[in-house]
Specification:
about 210 residues
Length: about 210
Amino acid sequence: MRGARAAWVGASIAVVLFVIIAVSIRMTGYFLFDAQLSSYMSQHVPGDYVSWFTQLGSGPGAMTMTVLLGVVSYVLWRDRIASIWYVLMAISVGALNQVVKFAFVRERPSLNELVGGVGYSFPSGHSAMAFAVYVGFLVVAFRHLKTTGKVIVSVLTIGLFLAMGASRIILNVHYFSDVIGGYCFAAILLCSSYAFIVSRRKKGVA
């Protein structure tokens, strides 16, 4: 049950961080250095270099990567339950994140329809999907890879979801807190659903 316990701890930490950020936004409109960081990065980091990359976190891009990696995970490791969990978890994150946005109705620092910068800002959908897609794949891969493979996949997937979040700030369509909030929201669903699946497997149900 160690895996399930660790996942519940992860989910709990994500809940606490999400609530702290959400309360700060509700009370002050910002969290920590939101405005300053968005302004600095949008002015000093060329957006042209990341505008194409951020499309991977858009609805079509994220869904394509989810299905692709779900198929890859099944072909490589024949873990049907894990592959189904991965795809359903990522889809759930994308759908529920849009619902949560309407609970906060936070305006973006700026609008940019070309890079999906429309609608409400918190939590960032691109960041949430990047976390779900790449960290979710990492979780599935960890069950089957040896040390070297784990290191390689970890570097690639963690680098991808962090770069996705940074791109949203650079393009000035999200605040820092939107990105971290998106990560936390995805982590809550990923960790809690994974803990449930692991518990069921231990009992021989799944």
